[in-house]
């Protein structure tokens, strides 16, 4: 239960930049056709700005969520059942968050979403391991779960196969290297990544309904497949092991792939349903007008909730962004609210919605063998979700007042 709760609540800060930035890039890609209406002609620059605004709120939230999660674990599973048991480790938690934030914010601003979590997490891992070994900001007493026995036999023989640290990290390093080389303009490869696109125009005869997939430039597709096949040779996997890897990957991806395909299809229905003989607005415009009339000037505070509802329903920040980013953009247009601010709040809302997502809760309960505890977990994660919601709203208000957002 403790592991399930911790993983769910920590599955928030880096989510907009997971799978090499797929959620954030999907939010930008799905609205790229309407960006010229607000004077945006450079999609790459818009993605960088969206990444920057999204990561600031998430990083400020990380300053709180990391020790809040540990406090919840102490309160529910500790010997003293006290939230205050977390206080000795708060300084180290803040150090961890600051290191992560100091890397992720400039990377998001300069390079975009693809490398934000990858680079920040890699740097933070080594920084925190080094700090912990040096005893920097570490609590004097070690907190343990009740009944946990300290292993005295440290020389117990390890029956697992071992490999060098470099070899274990090589796949991550290769993915990161690929993304850096193909995203940084100075290497001269970035223009080539748009070659050989898969394009569909005027889908089902509807003018303007077009789709383009630049598969070479897709950060969640090409580098990972390439590195996987390199890994097969590098680690000397047998035929049966390769089949097992491919089968497990297929089982994990098939559901998400189907959801994404139909998610894109649903968005196109929403957007282009104005192609009707009655002259009705599209479903997207109709919903946007309804939201604008319902929330009015308070829509700013509703935007991240919609993102969280999308994650709650679909189990993915990416699908939430695909489904609701066009709605958020259209509503912002009607209410004259800065578009990028609302899309960033959608992105952040979808990220923190992972904490209360039913799909994630069911999956983590099945993984940890605590099926039937879903209700208890949801009741516990709602509180941290609300705290994170207040943080992203507060940060965005501050950024707008400072002239950084909007």
Account of the protein in words:
By secondary structure, the protein is an all-alpha fold. It has one domain (2-142, 169-401). The chain is 65% helix and 1% strand. It is built from 14 helices and two strands; from the N terminus they run H-H-H-H-H-H-E-E-H-H-H-H-H-H-H-H. The chain has a two-stranded antiparallel ribbon with strand order 1-2. The two termini are 41 Å apart. The mean pLDDT is 87.
- Strands of the biggest beta sheet: in what spatial order? 1-2
Class inferred from helices and paired strands: mainly alpha
- Rg, nearest Å: 23 Å
Work out the helicity level.
55-70%
Number of helices: 14
* Poorly predicted spans: none
Brief overview, please?
This protein is mostly helical and 406 residues long. The protein has 14 helices and 2 strands; from the N terminus they run ααααααββαααααααα. Helix 10 crosses helix 12 (339-352).
Main attributes of the structure:
globular; 406 residues; two-stranded antiparallel sheet; 14 helices; mainly alpha
């Amino acid at each position: 239960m403790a592991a399930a709760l911790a993983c769910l609540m920590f599955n928030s800060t880096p989510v907009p930049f997971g799978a090499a930035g797929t959620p954030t890039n999907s939010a930008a890609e799905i609205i790229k056709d309407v960006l010229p209406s607000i004077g945006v002609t450079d999609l790459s620059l818009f993605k960088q700005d969206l990444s920057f605004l999204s990561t600031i709120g998430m990083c400020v939230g990380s300053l709180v969520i990391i020790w809040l999660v540990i406090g919840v674990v102490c309160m529910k599973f500790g010997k003293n059942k006290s939230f205050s048991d977390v206080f000795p480790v708060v300084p180290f938690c803040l150090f961890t968050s600051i290191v992560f934030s100091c890397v992720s914010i400039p990377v998001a601003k300069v390079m975009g979403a693809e490398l934000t979590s990858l680079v920040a997490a890699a740097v933070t891992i080594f920084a925190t391991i080094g700090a912990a070994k040096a005893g920097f900001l570490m609590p004097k007493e070690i907190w343990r779960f009740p009944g946990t026995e300290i292993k005295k036999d440290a020389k117990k023989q390890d029956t697992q196969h071992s490999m060098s640290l470099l070899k274990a990290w090589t796949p991550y390093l290769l993915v990161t290297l690929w993304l850096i080389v193909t995203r940084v303009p100075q290497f001269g490869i970035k223009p080539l990544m748009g070659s050989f696109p898969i394009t569909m125009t005027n889908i089902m005869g509807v003018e303007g309904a077009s789709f383009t997939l630049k598969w070479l430039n897709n950060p969640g597709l090409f580098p990972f497949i390439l590195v996987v096949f390199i890994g097969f040779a590098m680690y000397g996997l047998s035929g049966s092991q390769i089949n097992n890897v491919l089968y497990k990957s297929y089982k994990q991806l098939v559901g998400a792939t189907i959801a994404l395909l139909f998610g894109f299809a649903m968005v196109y229905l929403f957007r282009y349903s104005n192609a009707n003989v009655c002259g009705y607005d599209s479903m997207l415009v109709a919903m946007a007008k309804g939201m604008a009339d319902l929330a009015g000037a308070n829509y700013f505070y509703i935007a991240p909730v919609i993102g969280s509802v999308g994650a709650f329903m679909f189990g993915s920040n990416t699908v939430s962004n695909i489904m609701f980013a066009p709605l958020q953009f259209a509503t912002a247009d009607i209410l004259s609210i800065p578009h990028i601010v609302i899309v960033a709040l959608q992105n952040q809302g979808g990220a923190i919605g992972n904490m209360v997502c039913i799909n994630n809760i069911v999956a983590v309960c099945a993984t940890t063998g605590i099926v039937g505890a879903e209700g208890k977990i949801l009741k516990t994660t709602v509180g941290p979700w609300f705290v994170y919601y207040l943080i992203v709203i507060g940060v965005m208000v501050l950024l707008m007042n400072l002239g950084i957002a909007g």
